[in-house]
Structure formats: structure tokens, C-alpha cells
Amino acid sequence: MKRALATLILASLLISTFPLGVSAGATDDIPTNVSATGEHDTLVAALTHAGLVSTLQGNGPFTVFAPTDQAFIDAGIDLSTFDTDDENATLTDILLYHVVSGKVMSTDLSDRTTADAVNGDKVSFSVTTSEVRVNNALVTGADVESSNGVIHVIDKVLLPPVDVFVGDGSMAGAPYYQFYSDAAGSNEITEIDTSKNYNFQRLNNPSTHPFYISDVGYNTASSTDILIAGDGSASTGISDNESFTLFFTPDFDAEQDTLTYFCTVHSSMVADFTIASTLNDIPATATGTGIHTSLVAALAQANLVTTLQGTGPFTVFAPTDAAFTAAGIDLSSFDTDAENATLVDILTYHVVSGSVASTALTDGMTATALNGDNVTFTVNAAGVQVNDANVVTADVAATNGIIHVIDKVLMPPADLVDIPTVATGTGIHTALVAALTQANLVSTLQGTGPFTVFAPTDAAFTAAGIDLSTFDTDAENATLVDILTYHVVSGSVASTALTDGLTATALNGDNVTFTVNAAGVQVNDANVVTADVAASNGIIHVIDKVLMPPADPVPEPVLPDCDATVRIAPSGLKYTPSELTITVGQTVCWQWENESMAHNVRQVDGDQSTTYSANGISSGTAATTVDFRYTFDVDSTTFYYACEPHLAAGMFGKVIVGDGGVVEVTPPAGGDSADDSDDESVPGFLAIITTMALVGAAFVGSRRHD
Fold it and tell me: Running along the chain, 706 residues long, what does each successive block of 10 average in pLDDT?
């Protein structure tokens, strides 16, 4: 019941694929119906050339497996080359191999069966729930009934099996049997080609050494990878005039499987056939895929076919025809030497030396293509990518390498230019380029380098409020240079070389610091928004902020040496010494440490005055530890000062510079000298002395009273 249902489903699928115009001609003969399809012109021409039209117009009935025009093209059959009797006999043999006597509908077919074609050879059938194959040709349209039979459309031309004549055999040693392509035994066959089918028959009708084959081993029935139809078996072999036909299925691997031949009665007579490699060189393999027509045409136009037919090995990333269409590549537009050089550059960017299987590719791996540029691989759970192209079919083997089919044309990177030129071309670094120009740094960054440039965008310059028109003095332009060179590090530092916490010294001498985490990469507080933009003399990382150099550190003040030192007396309420005399230019130091009370120095407007001088000299806020130094550079002055917290306690001091500002009195001309012993008799002097004596007596008296 299940087989009947599957057959019914299969039949309905096959019938639905055939052109309706043909199915309507059931009253016409087979040649008429074939002529009407529009896809069998070559078949009709071949039948005409071979004089078989009238045969297939006969009563029949016939079952015809009808190859399409494309099938004839793929088989390389050119009717104009069949111009001798032998060649026409070959054409007739090929065409009659597509005809079976009787009307065989698709529902009459079963898996792993055979039928005798009109030319005398066998055809095999493979039947599944999804398809029917004749030999290895797919039936694309089934059960097209005609007045004298039925037509099944197929996608390949069926070639009759190759005749193999098997010699007598000998136990003397390998190869035990000889194989010939002719009954006369003159053309020896040394290997088997799995793209063909073979009709084995005995030569000279020997019976001493029965002959058979198997893909499993001696005297053992074959697997389903091959089909053997005809006389004999793995235990009896063929002798005398017996024969069998060998069909290879697509499951037989010419590179891995073995095909054994043996004598069924002498176990020592066993050996393996030499199987021809089914591989072709890379251009031939690409030609056979059916999806690389554009690639093959491009290779031919660029004169690269012979290169890829060379020894190699090569690994080719082969874009499909759809990929060429999507890339907008029109080969007719490559008509000058320069344009063809560009085409060569594109095509050789798809080729890597060596045979690199997909299993050898790792994530992040790079390889150098034949054009000298690098391709980069991404390998993850989603598959394999080369640059941004997906590998849709991997590891297609060829005699001189391996092919990976990709869904995009790889475009070589543009020739690298220097950093300022790259920045000019981004469209988002107008302000940066203008700043470099104003600061006369363009030629610097066009130098050999290499340099790593952290390039703020135009938006970053705007956000930083940088207006280049305001940098119009030497000092301001020096500041601009400082800012710009803070964005440049010597060497070519890729983003993959940056680690969290790493620091680097910029060209201006200051350090930049990197943060690397799951969120990305930062340089100082700027985010790297685009990394690893290559240039001929370095690398660019695009950032979203302008980096501002750190302020220059304020140097420690140079303190003058102390020529005299004032400290705090043990009482804590007096400077010691409280009075100093110095010369102009000397420095007085007021120094104390860890005093129990806080003290300071503040200028007052006179000796022991309680009025502070406006804008006077001061050590600042009172403290328990003070180191205040002052150099007196004005001669003949006196500096009066007090301790603010202890002003009421009379904590005063003074510094006399030079003569302190004392003015000597010059006596009148002709008068007595100032130190004359008669001064005490000067009028008024006695009165002053008397008054002072009275005041002193009164003061003493009051103290005694107290």
C-alpha cells in the first residue's frame, strides 16, 4: 500500500513538470510530440541526421528517454562532427540507447531494475519517492503519451556502456586477467572510469576461470553503490559467451571505494581495478557545476584559465552566477588594458595558494590571496565567511586544489593611501583634516611612520567647542599642535593589540590610557566607534571625542634660603628673637613646628600697633606648624608684625632693614655739637627732667600703696 501511494505521488509530480503543450498531443507520434516541446530541437536534429525519424514514427510502441537541448550541450555533442559512416553509426547507437521497446510508464518502473534498449545494451532505473533516474539521468517530465508510445524527458544524454572484453585469465600472478576494448584483444584497458557504465563479456569463450566483480570483496555480492545486471553472480561468475553490465550509482566514491575482480573458483585470483580519478582541474570543475558560468567566462577573459589549470594547488572561493549579477559585474565593460587588469585583480583576490579545506579555517584567520591582498575568515555556529561572503558549499575537490562556493564577489581593498588622505576620504573628518592643515601637521602624518591616529569625528570637534579661527597666535597654534599630537601614537597599533589598562605615550609626550571590556574600546574617555582603518603608513581608530592633553603640572616653588630665623619662645607668647636687624635682600624665615598654640605673622602699621596694615605681609591663617619666608628687598625700612591670636598678649616683633628708616638730625651751622656736655643746661631740659621725676615718684607711690 505504501509503495503504491509513493508511486502515485511520484507519477503526479513528474507529470506536472512537463510542458502542457506536449501532454495534449497524445494522438501524435513521438517525433511530432518531441518537436513541439521547444526544448528538444537537438534531439530532433540528431534523429534526422541518423535517419531515425521514420523509425520512431512506426507503430512501436516505443518508450523514449528524451534528452533536452541543454543535455546535448552539457554532453558536448556537436552533430556537425558526425560525418563518416563510423561516426554516424556511433550517433545511431547513442540515440537507440534512449529507446526501449514497449510502452513503459513511470508506474511500471521499480528501483534497481534494468531494461534492454533498442541498441542491445541495458539501461538501469533508480526509483525513490521523490525522483526517477535512468542510469544517472534525472527524469524531469514523465509519461508524455504519444500515439505510438510514451516519452520521458531527461536532463542528460545517455551514453551506451563501454564494452570490456575479459581475457582467459591466469593463475601465474596479478593482474590475473587482461581487459580489452575490442574483441580482437588489441586495445588493453588499464583503468575504470566511474562516470561510464561497462558491459563485461568473455573473450574467446573461456570457462576455466569464471570471472566476476564486486565492490565488497571476493565472492561477495556487491553493495547498492553499484548495480550489476546480466549473466552470472558473485559465486558463479561468467564464462563462455556470458556477459553482464556494470552501473555506477552516485553513491560510489571513485576516490575512496574499491572495485574488485576475481575468479569465482580460484580464491588466489583476486585484484582491484585501477579506478580513474573523477576529478577535474579547477576551471573544468567550475564549468561542470552549472552555477559558475560567469566565473568561468571571467577567467577566460582575464586569461587566467591556464593559470588555474596549473599544478597548484590552489584554493578558489568561487562566486556563483547570482553573486556576479548582484555585484553588477558586466564583463563587456572590461575592454581596456587597465580594466582587464582590474578584472585580474578581482579574480586573483579569490585564489589562495595551497589546498585549504574548510576544516583548516579558524575564526579570525587571514590568508594572502594571489593578488597580494589579505582575506579574513569568520568561523562560528552560523558557518564560514570569507570577508563578508558566505561559504555555501565547501570542499569541492579538484585535481589541483579545492573550491569553496561563495555567495558574493570579493572586492579587493583599495590601494592604501597615507593617513591624511584616508581621513579626507571618510567624510566625517573634515574638522580634523582642517586642524592638521592649520597646525602644519599634514606632512608629518604623510611620513613613513607608522602612526596610530585616534581620529575624532566632526561631531566630536563640535562637541568640544573647538573653533579653529580662534587659534591665531603662536601660543594658540602651539596649543592646537599639542592637542592634535595627543591623538597620535608611534607604531601601528591594531585594536586587537589593546588591553585593558594599557597606556601609550602620544607624540606630544603625554600618556593615553585604554579601557577594553565587553562594551568595546575606550582611549581615555573617548569610545572607539570604528577600529583598524588601514592606511599606507599606519592605522586609524575613529573616536567620538576630542582628547584633551592633561594640564602641565605646576612646578614646586623654589624657597629662598634663610638668612635669619624667628621661632616661638617657650612661653608660646613671644617671638624669638622678637627683633632682627638685616641688610636689604636678606630673607627672614618664621618657622615653628607642632606648637601647642597656633601662631602667624601679620604686618601692623607701627611698633606694637594693634592696627593691621592694609594689603600687608602675612603668613596666612595661624597654624601650629609654619614655614613662612620673606625676602626684604627695600632698604631702610622696618617691618612691624604681630601674632593675630595673641595680639592682646603683646606678641609683637619687628625686622629692621638697614638703618630701619632712622633719620639723623643735622645741627645748625655754627652751633654746638649734639653731644655737647652742656645740653643739660639747655632751657626746658630741666623742666622735662623734673616732670619725669614727679611722674616716676607718683607711679612708685601708687605701686607701694597697692
Answer: 34 38 66 94 96 95 96 89 93 97 95 96 94 94 94 96 93 91 91 93 83 95 95 94 93 89 95 85 91 94 94 95 93 90 95 94 94 93 94 92 96 88 92 95 94 96 93 92 96 93 95 94 95 92 95 82 96 95 96 95 95 94 96 94 95 93 52 42 44 44 43
Contact partners, residue 227, CB within 8 Å, separation at least 6: 112, 114, 124, 246, 247, 249
Q: Which uninterrupted H or E stretch holds 297?
A: helix 293-301
According to the model, what pLDDT value does residue 36 have? 92
Query: What span, in angstroms and rounded, lies between the C-alpha atoms of 543 and 531?
Result: 9
In angstroms, the CA 125 to CA 63 distance is 14
Q: Which residues on adjacent β-strands are paired with residue 386?
A: 377, 389
* 146 bridge partner residues: 149
Q: Are 487 and 449 in contact (CB under 8 A)?
A: no
β-strands 149-154, 62-67: how paired? Answer: parallel
Q: Report the candidate in 273, 231, 282 with the shortest Cα–Cα distance to residue 252.
A: 273
Give the model's pLDDT for residue 245: 97
Count Cα neighbours of 694 within 13 Å in the Cβ-side half-sphere. Answer: 6
How close are the terminal C-alpha atoms of the chain, in Å?
146
Nine-digit cell at 545?
A: 571625542
Instruction: Tell me how far apart the alpha carbons of residues 435 and 417 are, in angstroms, rounded to a whole number.
Output: 19
φ, ψ of residue 93 in degrees (nearest 5)? -60, -45
CA distances from 132 to 69, 102, 128, 359 (A): 20, 18, 6, 35
The pairing of strands 564-568 and 488-490 is unpaired
For residue 26, the model assigns a pLDDT of: 76
Q: What domains are defined for the chain?
A: 2-154 (2.30.180.10), 282-406 (2.30.180.10), 419-543 (2.30.180.10), 564-657 (2.60.40.420)
Question: What count of other Cβ atoms lies within 10 Å of the Cβ of residue 256?
Answer: 7
Q: Which residues contact 668 (CB under 8 A, 6 or more apart)?
A: none
Bond before 313 cis per omega within 30 degrees: yes
CA-closest candidate to residue 489, choices 502, 501, 505:
505
Rg of the Cα trace of the chain? 54
350, 315 contact by CB (below 8 A): no
C-alpha 659/C-alpha 255 separation (Å) is 117
Name 506's bridge partners.
Answer: 489
Count of beta carbons in the 10 Å neighbourhood of residue 71: 22
My answer on whether omega of the bond before 175 falls inside 30° of 0, hence cis, is: yes
Pairing of β 602-603 and β 538-543: unpaired
Phi, psi of 482 (to 5 degrees): -60, -45
Locus of grid cell 565547501: 394
Within 13 Å and on the Cβ side, how many CA atoms surround 361?
Answer: 25
The DSSP 8-state label assigned to residue 275 in this structure reads B
21/23 Cα distance (integer angstroms): 6
**CA distance linking residue 643 with residue 595, whole number of Å:** 14
